[in-house]
Amino acid sequence: MKRYLFAGMVVVAAVLLGSVVVWWIREGKRPAAPRGQVVYEENCAVCHGLMGDGKSEAAYLFQPKPRNFRAGKFRLVSSENLQPTREDLFQTITNGMPGTAMPSWVHLPESDRWALADYVLELNRQGWYDKAIELGDSPAEADEYAGEMTDPGEPIPIPPEPPVTPAGLRQGRRFYLTACANCHGKNGEGREDPTWRTAEGYPTWSRNLREGVIKGGRDGKQLYLTFATGLPGTPMPSQTLSPEQVWRVVQYVQSLSDPKAQEDAQIRIQTLAAKRVPSLPVGPEDALWESVPSARVPLMPLWWHEGYIPEVRIKAVHDGHRLAFRLEWDDPTRDAGAIEQQKFSDGAAVQLTANASPPLFAMGVPGEPVNIWHWKAVWSEDQKRFGDVGTAFPRMVADAYFGSKSGWHSGPLEDTRFLPAVEVQNLIASQDRPGPIEDANAAGLGTLASQSHEGQNVQGLSAWQDGVWRLQLVREITSPDPRDVPLQAGKTVSVAFAIWDGSAGDRDGQKSVSIWNTLTLE
Fold it and tell me: Within a domain: residue 144?
């Protein structure tokens, strides 16, 4: 019943303002802006908002929330007055914030990253300026005040790191238990407290240090600064330990996890090659896949939670006529039901665009749509037997249904006049879908639209075994549908991936995603 009720609704969503601005710039509808502003509006406004206040239309999808640059509460700083330097922001832009939805922007030219750092500093300065004007200062006084508040001041001195020794690690654990364990747990496992809030009022939690994914990275000097300053805007305070004690805590925290975890969490653009083969594998477990190179694509959770799916392993082949992807990811639970209100389906999606340099990794912008192949585990189940209320509640008793062809009687609903989603051939409610893949398009957040039944030309087969999903997606290289991204041997397209974990409550925009990568057909 849930799919009928919700799939039958007509949802009208506003296109993200930041996406409109990107189109506005690209179409030459306004005078040229400074380079930092252009880079910001093309890549950052979709999350942080056009004004840098963290209030984009996409912000509700994220946890942690996008930073409000105008408020001046930057998390990673190196100055004694907790104001970021230009270098602080450049490093954050370059490295991203692993464990959050902010990827590394190392693929941007270095000059663009410096320009972006300067523009974020300007947004911060403008925030302080506006506050002063609100308090009644003159423009000249407000300008002076903003300059004082954004001056990073003296850098925090970082003494040389002492050698790592067993005795030093034992000391580090003692200092950790005194200064950190109350929030991060006795063994670094992290915890949540309903009273913890960020400066913006959002719920927050302490990081699980044993997972090894730390916002500012596990580099010794950066961790030293994090312990010395705390995380401004969060409940994590600065420490009063001596410099040597701080270094011992840093070394102990580093010892809690594998250094590879931080490296694996770094999001980087990759080039994926679809190998030319005589014939395509017949399914995701076909032995032919064993000879195909695999690429590990890191994912970032839009809504962070413990145990999110951190990666998807990608293989791709083509035979000159059809392209096949195989996606493989670890998921300890097989979630293939979505009828009950609190159950959600596992899923995966491939997103394609012919744009060699698409904006961000979201769902296109006006005039530059993307093509999405969305597999849902529940749709694979529906291929065997279409599920409905009676499937979820087989012992449910009903006196009578109205809407069957024979009128009142105890039978299923059959008259589609009482099933509007079925009547209008909505794929979500359809019992005769071409397959378990939804072939859809989007030109901005809130614009996702399924292609017609006739346009559903992506085939999919899936298998789950021993905590691993394997999914094969196949489409003709040459498609007559103008809504499909054209593919051609020797040419490149941009491709991104998304994974939904049903047992974690993932659905709709709550998922783990990659950034855009490059796909080449041999």
Answer: yes
